[in-house]
Protein backbone atom coordinates (compact mmCIF):
# COMPACT_ATOMS: atom_id res chain seq x y z
CA UNK A 1 0.00 0.00 0.00
CA UNK A 2 1.45 3.34 -1.05
CA UNK A 3 1.78 6.08 1.49
CA UNK A 4 -0.77 8.16 -0.40
CA UNK A 5 -3.30 5.31 -0.26
CA UNK A 6 -2.63 4.82 3.47
CA UNK A 7 -2.94 8.53 4.15
CA UNK A 8 -6.29 8.68 2.31
CA UNK A 9 -7.68 5.74 4.29
CA UNK A 10 -6.38 7.16 7.56
CA UNK A 11 -7.88 10.49 6.65
CA UNK A 12 -11.28 8.81 6.29
CA UNK A 13 -10.79 7.08 9.63
CA UNK A 14 -9.93 10.41 11.29
CA UNK A 15 -13.17 11.80 9.88
CA UNK A 16 -15.18 8.82 11.15
CA UNK A 17 -13.44 9.06 14.54
CA UNK A 18 -14.58 12.66 14.70
CA UNK A 19 -18.15 11.66 13.83
CA UNK A 20 -18.08 8.81 16.37
CA UNK A 21 -16.80 11.20 19.03
CA UNK A 22 -19.56 13.65 18.25
CA UNK A 23 -22.14 10.86 18.35
CA UNK A 24 -20.96 9.30 21.62
CA UNK A 25 -20.75 12.76 23.19
CA UNK A 26 -24.31 13.49 22.06
CA UNK A 27 -25.34 10.08 23.42
CA UNK A 28 -23.58 10.89 26.71
CA UNK A 29 -25.55 14.11 27.11
CA UNK A 30 -28.82 12.21 26.69
CA UNK A 31 -27.57 9.62 29.21
CA UNK A 32 -26.97 12.47 31.71
CA UNK A 33 -30.50 13.73 31.13
CA UNK A 34 -31.85 10.22 31.73
CA UNK A 35 -29.72 10.10 34.90
CA UNK A 36 -31.40 13.31 36.11
CA UNK A 37 -34.87 11.91 35.40
CA UNK A 38 -34.03 8.68 37.23
CA UNK A 39 -32.66 10.65 40.16
CA UNK A 40 -35.93 12.56 40.48
CA UNK A 41 -37.98 9.39 40.20
CA UNK A 42 -35.73 7.55 42.63
CA UNK A 43 -35.19 4.62 40.26
CA UNK A 44 -31.86 2.78 39.94
CA UNK A 45 -29.40 4.05 37.34
CA UNK A 46 -28.35 0.57 36.26
CA UNK A 47 -31.00 -1.03 34.06
CA UNK A 48 -29.80 -4.46 32.84
CA UNK A 49 -33.12 -5.15 31.10
CA UNK A 50 -32.79 -2.01 28.97
CA UNK A 51 -29.14 -2.84 28.22
CA UNK A 52 -30.14 -6.34 27.09
CA UNK A 53 -32.84 -4.98 24.78
CA UNK A 54 -30.36 -2.55 23.18
CA UNK A 55 -27.72 -5.26 22.73
CA UNK A 56 -30.24 -7.69 21.18
CA UNK A 57 -31.42 -5.00 18.77
CA UNK A 58 -27.85 -4.09 17.78
CA UNK A 59 -26.86 -7.70 17.22
CA UNK A 60 -30.00 -8.27 15.11
CA UNK A 61 -28.98 -5.51 12.73
CA UNK A 62 -25.27 -6.30 12.75
CA UNK A 63 -24.07 -6.98 9.20
CA UNK A 64 -20.38 -7.45 10.12
CA UNK A 65 -17.50 -7.43 9.80
CA UNK A 66 -17.46 -7.25 13.61
CA UNK A 67 -18.81 -10.41 15.25
CA UNK A 68 -21.90 -10.17 17.44
CA UNK A 69 -19.66 -10.81 20.45
CA UNK A 70 -17.48 -7.84 19.54
CA UNK A 71 -20.52 -5.59 19.05
CA UNK A 72 -21.85 -6.66 22.44
CA UNK A 73 -18.58 -5.96 24.20
CA UNK A 74 -18.05 -2.59 22.46
CA UNK A 75 -21.53 -1.39 23.41
CA UNK A 76 -21.28 -2.81 26.92
CA UNK A 77 -18.25 -0.53 27.34
CA UNK A 78 -20.36 2.42 26.22
CA UNK A 79 -23.18 1.50 28.64
CA UNK A 80 -20.73 1.09 31.49
CA UNK A 81 -19.10 4.48 30.77
CA UNK A 82 -22.60 5.98 30.58
CA UNK A 83 -23.49 4.53 33.95
CA UNK A 84 -20.28 6.01 35.43
CA UNK A 85 -21.33 9.35 34.05
CA UNK A 86 -24.72 9.12 35.72
CA UNK A 87 -23.17 8.07 39.02
CA UNK A 88 -20.51 10.83 38.83
CA UNK A 89 -23.21 13.38 38.21
CA UNK A 90 -24.99 12.12 41.30
CA UNK A 91 -21.78 12.41 43.38
CA UNK A 92 -21.33 15.98 42.21
CA UNK A 93 -24.65 16.89 43.75
CA UNK A 94 -23.79 15.69 47.28
CA UNK A 95 -24.03 18.68 49.57
CA UNK A 96 -21.05 17.55 51.65
CA UNK A 97 -18.85 17.14 48.57
CA UNK A 98 -16.07 19.56 47.83
CA UNK A 99 -17.39 19.61 44.28
CA UNK A 100 -20.46 21.48 45.48
CA UNK A 101 -18.63 23.72 48.01
CA UNK A 102 -14.97 24.49 47.28
CA UNK A 103 -14.04 26.29 50.52
CA UNK A 104 -13.41 24.47 53.80
CA UNK A 105 -16.37 24.61 56.14
CA UNK A 106 -15.37 26.33 59.36
CA UNK A 107 -17.63 25.60 62.32
CA UNK A 108 -17.84 28.42 64.83
CA UNK A 109 -18.69 27.23 68.33
CA UNK A 110 -19.66 29.39 71.29
CA UNK A 111 -16.75 31.44 72.60
CA UNK A 112 -15.37 31.74 69.06
CA UNK A 113 -13.83 28.29 69.14
CA UNK A 114 -13.47 27.24 65.51
CA UNK A 115 -13.18 23.82 63.91
CA UNK A 116 -11.77 23.44 60.43
CA UNK A 117 -10.22 26.89 60.31
CA UNK A 118 -6.72 28.17 60.97
CA UNK A 119 -6.30 26.47 64.34
CA UNK A 120 -6.34 22.82 65.36
CA UNK A 121 -8.80 21.53 67.94
CA UNK A 122 -8.02 19.26 70.86
CA UNK A 123 -11.07 17.45 72.25
CA UNK A 124 -10.37 15.60 75.46
CA UNK A 125 -12.23 14.12 78.37
CA UNK A 126 -13.36 10.91 79.97
CA UNK A 127 -14.86 8.06 78.02
CA UNK A 128 -17.87 8.17 80.35
CA UNK A 129 -19.14 10.76 82.78
CA UNK A 130 -19.04 8.76 86.02
CA UNK A 131 -19.41 11.33 88.80
CA UNK A 132 -19.29 15.05 89.50
CA UNK A 133 -15.86 14.75 91.07
CA UNK A 134 -14.38 12.76 88.19
CA UNK A 135 -15.79 15.17 85.59
CA UNK A 136 -14.80 18.34 87.45
CA UNK A 137 -11.27 17.01 88.02
CA UNK A 138 -10.83 16.45 84.28
CA UNK A 139 -12.45 19.80 83.43
CA UNK A 140 -10.05 21.66 85.73
CA UNK A 141 -7.05 19.91 84.16
CA UNK A 142 -8.27 20.61 80.63
CA UNK A 143 -8.83 24.29 81.38
CA UNK A 144 -5.29 24.50 82.80
CA UNK A 145 -3.90 22.85 79.67
CA UNK A 146 -5.71 25.28 77.38
CA UNK A 147 -8.21 22.76 75.98
CA UNK A 148 -11.55 24.32 75.00
CA UNK A 149 -13.79 21.30 74.29
CA UNK A 150 -14.47 18.48 76.75
CA UNK A 151 -15.95 15.15 75.75
CA UNK A 152 -17.80 12.84 78.11
CA UNK A 153 -20.16 9.96 77.37
CA UNK A 154 -23.55 9.89 79.09
CA UNK A 155 -25.32 7.41 76.81
CA UNK A 156 -22.90 4.55 76.24
CA UNK A 157 -23.64 1.98 73.55
CA UNK A 158 -21.60 -0.88 74.99
CA UNK A 159 -20.92 -4.26 73.43
CA UNK A 160 -22.43 -6.03 76.45
CA UNK A 161 -25.79 -4.99 77.92
CA UNK A 162 -24.32 -5.83 81.34
CA UNK A 163 -21.55 -3.21 81.06
CA UNK A 164 -21.96 0.34 82.41
CA UNK A 165 -24.46 2.07 80.14
CA UNK A 166 -23.75 5.65 81.20
CA UNK A 167 -25.60 8.08 83.48
CA UNK A 168 -27.95 9.30 80.74
CA UNK A 169 -29.43 12.78 81.22
CA UNK A 170 -27.81 13.04 84.68
CA UNK A 171 -24.47 12.52 82.98
CA UNK A 172 -25.18 15.33 80.53
CA UNK A 173 -26.08 17.64 83.42
CA UNK A 174 -22.85 16.80 85.26
CA UNK A 175 -20.86 17.41 82.08
CA UNK A 176 -22.53 20.77 81.45
CA UNK A 177 -22.04 21.97 85.01
CA UNK A 178 -18.35 21.04 85.05
CA UNK A 179 -17.85 22.62 81.63
CA UNK A 180 -19.57 25.84 82.71
CA UNK A 181 -17.47 26.00 85.85
CA UNK A 182 -14.23 25.75 83.85
CA UNK A 183 -15.26 27.65 80.71
CA UNK A 184 -15.33 24.62 78.41
CA UNK A 185 -17.61 23.48 75.62
CA UNK A 186 -19.18 20.03 75.72
CA UNK A 187 -19.50 17.13 73.36
CA UNK A 188 -21.45 13.97 74.10
CA UNK A 189 -22.98 11.10 72.20
CA UNK A 190 -26.72 10.95 71.64
CA UNK A 191 -28.08 7.54 70.64
CA UNK A 192 -31.82 8.09 70.49
CA UNK A 193 -33.72 10.71 68.47
CA UNK A 194 -36.03 11.17 71.49
CA UNK A 195 -33.10 12.56 73.54
CA UNK A 196 -31.96 15.16 71.02
CA UNK A 197 -34.26 18.01 72.02
CA UNK A 198 -33.51 17.68 75.72
CA UNK A 199 -29.77 17.34 75.14
CA UNK A 200 -29.53 20.68 73.33
CA UNK A 201 -29.21 22.56 76.63
CA UNK A 202 -26.30 20.40 77.73
CA UNK A 203 -24.15 19.78 74.68
CA UNK A 204 -22.41 22.19 72.34
CA UNK A 205 -21.68 19.39 69.89
CA UNK A 206 -23.78 16.28 69.42
CA UNK A 207 -21.72 13.19 68.77
CA UNK A 208 -23.04 10.39 66.61
CA UNK A 209 -21.08 7.30 67.57
CA UNK A 210 -19.51 4.72 65.31
CA UNK A 211 -22.24 2.15 65.98
CA UNK A 212 -24.90 4.65 64.96
CA UNK A 213 -23.29 5.93 61.78
CA UNK A 214 -25.77 3.78 59.85
CA UNK A 215 -28.74 4.79 62.02
CA UNK A 216 -30.39 6.86 59.34
CA UNK A 217 -33.35 7.98 61.46
CA UNK A 218 -30.92 9.38 64.05
CA UNK A 219 -28.89 11.06 61.30
CA UNK A 220 -32.03 12.65 59.87
CA UNK A 221 -33.08 13.80 63.33
CA UNK A 222 -29.76 15.55 64.10
CA UNK A 223 -29.95 17.01 60.60
CA UNK A 224 -32.97 18.97 61.75
CA UNK A 225 -31.45 20.75 64.73
CA UNK A 226 -29.28 23.84 64.89
CA UNK A 227 -26.34 22.26 66.70
CA UNK A 228 -22.94 21.12 65.39
CA UNK A 229 -22.60 17.35 64.94
CA UNK A 230 -19.50 15.20 65.23
CA UNK A 231 -20.05 12.12 63.10
CA UNK A 232 -17.88 9.10 63.80
CA UNK A 233 -16.93 6.68 61.06
CA UNK A 234 -18.66 3.32 61.49
CA UNK A 235 -16.66 0.32 62.65
CA UNK A 236 -16.59 -1.18 59.19
CA UNK A 237 -17.80 1.71 57.08
CA UNK A 238 -16.22 2.57 53.76
CA UNK A 239 -15.42 6.23 53.19
CA UNK A 240 -18.24 6.38 50.67
CA UNK A 241 -20.71 5.15 53.32
CA UNK A 242 -19.25 7.63 55.82
CA UNK A 243 -19.67 10.51 53.39
CA UNK A 244 -23.24 9.47 52.62
CA UNK A 245 -24.01 9.31 56.35
CA UNK A 246 -22.86 12.95 56.59
CA UNK A 247 -25.05 13.72 53.59
CA UNK A 248 -28.07 12.36 55.52
CA UNK A 249 -27.45 15.05 58.13
CA UNK A 250 -26.74 17.87 55.69
CA UNK A 251 -29.67 16.99 53.45
CA UNK A 252 -31.96 17.86 56.38
CA UNK A 253 -30.49 21.33 56.69
CA UNK A 254 -27.78 21.02 59.34
CA UNK A 255 -24.53 22.12 57.69
CA UNK A 256 -22.40 22.08 60.86
CA UNK A 257 -20.86 18.64 60.56
CA UNK A 258 -17.43 17.39 61.61
CA UNK A 259 -16.17 13.98 60.57
CA UNK A 260 -14.02 11.83 62.80
CA UNK A 261 -11.92 8.84 61.82
CA UNK A 262 -11.86 6.42 64.77
CA UNK A 263 -10.23 3.33 63.30
CA UNK A 264 -11.75 0.50 61.35
CA UNK A 265 -11.99 -3.24 61.89
CA UNK A 266 -9.27 -5.21 60.20
CA UNK A 267 -7.44 -8.48 60.90
CA UNK A 268 -4.70 -6.59 62.77
CA UNK A 269 -4.66 -7.26 66.50
CA UNK A 270 -1.77 -5.01 67.57
CA UNK A 271 -4.22 -2.13 67.91
CA UNK A 272 -7.86 -2.10 68.98
CA UNK A 273 -8.86 -0.90 65.51
CA UNK A 274 -6.73 0.11 62.53
CA UNK A 275 -6.26 3.86 62.30
CA UNK A 276 -6.93 4.68 58.66
CA UNK A 277 -4.67 7.69 58.19
CA UNK A 278 -5.41 7.77 54.47
CA UNK A 279 -9.03 8.55 55.35
CA UNK A 280 -7.93 12.03 56.44
CA UNK A 281 -6.60 13.38 53.11
CA UNK A 282 -9.30 11.51 51.19
CA UNK A 283 -12.10 13.02 53.28
CA UNK A 284 -10.50 16.46 53.05
CA UNK A 285 -10.30 16.03 49.28
CA UNK A 286 -13.81 14.68 48.81
CA UNK A 287 -15.66 16.82 51.38
CA UNK A 288 -15.50 20.38 52.63
CA UNK A 289 -16.10 19.37 56.27
CA UNK A 290 -13.59 19.47 59.15
CA UNK A 291 -11.94 16.10 59.83
CA UNK A 292 -10.76 14.95 63.26
CA UNK A 293 -9.00 11.79 64.40
CA UNK A 294 -9.85 9.86 67.56
CA UNK A 295 -6.49 8.48 68.59
CA UNK A 296 -7.83 6.64 71.65
CA UNK A 297 -10.46 4.44 70.01
CA UNK A 298 -8.49 3.84 66.84
CA UNK A 299 -5.40 2.54 68.60
CA UNK A 300 -6.62 1.47 72.02
CA UNK A 301 -2.98 1.93 73.11
CA UNK A 302 -1.60 4.72 75.22
CA UNK A 303 1.99 4.14 74.07
CA UNK A 304 1.43 5.21 70.46
CA UNK A 305 -0.97 8.14 70.90
CA UNK A 306 1.67 10.82 70.31
CA UNK A 307 2.98 9.53 66.95
CA UNK A 308 -0.56 8.75 65.80
CA UNK A 309 -1.78 12.25 66.69
CA UNK A 310 1.20 13.75 64.86
CA UNK A 311 0.51 11.54 61.84
CA UNK A 312 -3.14 12.63 61.83
CA UNK A 313 -2.20 16.32 61.92
CA UNK A 314 0.50 15.82 59.29
CA UNK A 315 -2.13 14.17 57.07
CA UNK A 316 -4.32 17.26 57.37
CA UNK A 317 -6.59 16.56 60.35
CA UNK A 318 -8.27 19.62 61.86
CA UNK A 319 -8.31 18.16 65.32
CA UNK A 320 -7.64 15.27 67.66
CA UNK A 321 -9.84 13.51 70.19
CA UNK A 322 -8.33 11.72 73.16
CA UNK A 323 -9.69 10.20 76.36
CA UNK A 324 -8.55 11.46 79.77
CA UNK A 325 -9.56 10.13 83.19
CA UNK A 326 -8.27 11.14 86.65
CA UNK A 327 -7.71 7.48 87.53
CA UNK A 328 -7.97 5.29 84.41
CA UNK A 329 -7.56 2.05 86.38
CA UNK A 330 -10.92 2.62 88.07
CA UNK A 331 -12.74 3.89 84.96
CA UNK A 332 -16.12 2.29 84.28
CA UNK A 333 -15.33 2.05 80.55
CA UNK A 334 -12.17 2.03 78.43
CA UNK A 335 -10.00 1.59 81.56
CA UNK A 336 -6.98 0.36 79.62
CA UNK A 337 -6.73 3.13 77.11
CA UNK A 338 -7.53 6.42 78.85
CA UNK A 339 -4.69 8.79 79.76
CA UNK A 340 -4.34 10.08 83.28
CA UNK A 341 -3.97 13.84 83.68
CA UNK A 342 -0.15 13.86 83.75
CA UNK A 343 -0.05 11.60 80.70
CA UNK A 344 -2.49 13.91 78.92
CA UNK A 345 -0.34 16.96 79.68
CA UNK A 346 2.73 15.20 78.26
CA UNK A 347 0.70 14.11 75.23
CA UNK A 348 -0.67 17.59 74.52
CA UNK A 349 2.70 19.29 75.07
CA UNK A 350 4.44 16.91 72.70
CA UNK A 351 1.77 17.27 70.03
CA UNK A 352 1.99 21.05 70.29
CA UNK A 353 5.82 20.96 70.24
CA UNK A 354 5.75 19.03 66.96
CA UNK A 355 4.70 22.22 65.19
CA UNK A 356 1.89 20.28 63.51
CA UNK A 357 -0.76 21.53 65.93
CA UNK A 358 -1.80 24.93 64.60
C1 LIG B 1 -28.20 3.60 29.68
C2 LIG B 1 -27.27 3.68 30.83
C3 LIG B 1 -27.33 2.84 31.90
C4 LIG B 1 -28.35 1.85 32.08
O1 LIG B 1 -27.88 0.67 32.68
C5 LIG B 1 -29.06 1.55 30.83
C6 LIG B 1 -28.98 2.34 29.74
C7 LIG B 1 -27.42 3.68 28.34
O2 LIG B 1 -26.24 4.03 28.33
O3 LIG B 1 -28.05 3.39 27.32
C8 LIG B 1 -29.13 4.79 29.71
C9 LIG B 1 -30.14 4.70 30.78
O4 LIG B 1 -29.84 5.02 31.92
C10 LIG B 1 -31.49 4.18 30.47
O5 LIG B 1 -31.82 4.00 29.32
O6 LIG B 1 -32.23 3.94 31.44
TrEMBL record:
Task: Determine the domain of life of the protein's source.
Answer: Bacteria
Q: According to its UniProt record, what is one Pfam family this protein matches?
A: CM_2
InterPro entries this protein is in? Aldolase_TIM, Chorismate_II_sf, Chorismate_mutase_GmP-bac, Class-I_DAHP_synthase, CM_dom_sf, CM_II_prokaryot, DAHP1/KDSA, DAHP_syn_2
Family annotation (SMART domains): CM_2
Q: Which PROSITE patterns does its entry note?
A: CHORISMATE_MUT_2 (PS51168)
Domain (Chorismate mutase): residue spans on this chain: 1-90
Using the record for this protein, list the coiled-coil segments as residue ranges, or answer none. Answer: none
In the UniProt record, does the keyword Iron-sulfur occur?
A: no
Q: Does the keyword Transferase apply?
A: yes
Q: For this UniProt record, give its keywords in alphabetical order, as a comma-separated list.
A: Transferase
Record-linked PANTHER family: PHOSPHO-2-DEHYDRO-3-DEOXYHEPTONATE ALDOLASE (PTHR43018), PROTEIN AROA(G) (PTHR43018:SF1)
What NCBIfam families does the entry give?
CM_A, DAHP_synth_Bsub, PRK08673.1, PRK12595.1
Entry protein name: Chorismate mutase
The source organism is: Paenibacillus odorifer
Amino acid sequence: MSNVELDVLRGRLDEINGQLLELISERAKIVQEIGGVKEKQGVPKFDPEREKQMLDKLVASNKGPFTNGTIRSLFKQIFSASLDLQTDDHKKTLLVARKSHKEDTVIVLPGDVTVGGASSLMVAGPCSVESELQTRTVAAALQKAGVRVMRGGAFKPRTSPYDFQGLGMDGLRILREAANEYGLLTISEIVDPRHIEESLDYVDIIQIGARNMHNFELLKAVGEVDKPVLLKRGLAATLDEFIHAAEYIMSRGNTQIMLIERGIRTYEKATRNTLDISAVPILKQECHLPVLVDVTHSTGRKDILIPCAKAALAAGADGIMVEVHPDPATALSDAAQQLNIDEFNTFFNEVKASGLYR
